[in-house]
Amino acid sequence: MTKIQTYFISRTSRYYRNFFWSWLALILLVSSLPNLNTPSVRMGGFELRLDHFFHWLQYMTLAFLMVSWQYRKNPARSRKVFFYTLIIGILLAVGDEYHQLLIPGRSFTYADMLSNALGVITGVLVAALFWRPLLKTGS
User: CA-to-CA distance for 75 and 128, rounded, in angstroms?
Assistant: First the structure.
């Protein structure tokens, strides 16, 4: 690997790390807000709750950032990175829901926890597809 490639990889790894920690802090901040309303859309007589989509999206982003940070730091360990991201991400997803039991006006729901976990799984899969060309070339 050239010096330029090494520099680029270390630099982008740092950016993904910073984005990951900022995103995680934002998730924890928002989930700590008391009495947060559940976003929904009314369509005729049907109400569509959007909170499950937002749970999925925020944890998908978190998992993608974590894989990108760790993968860019050490591409040779890609399978371990994907596996550990799944484990850590799902633990964070479950912990976030339990944490909401301590916040006034917030509640623990299995549906939200499932949305979080599915977001982690999706984020790891998207990251695997995104980084796949680099896995093949070995850079």
Answer: 11
Q: Which helix (H) or strand (E) holds 48?
A: strand 46-49
Residue 42 is assigned to a structural domain of this protein: no
Q: pTM of the full predicted structure?
A: 0.83
DSSP class of residue 103?
Answer: S
The domain tally of the chain equals: 1
**Alpha carbons 1 and 15: distance in angstroms, whole number:** 20
Which range of residues forms the domain containing residue 98?
3-32+49-137
Query: Strand, helix or coil at 43?
Result: strand
Contact indicator for 67, 85 with CB cutoff of 8 Å: yes
What is the average per-residue pLDDT within 13-19? 88
* Residue 38 within any structural domain of the chain: no
Looking at every residue in the chain, the average pLDDT score rounds to 85
Enter the tokens of residue 82: 């994907």
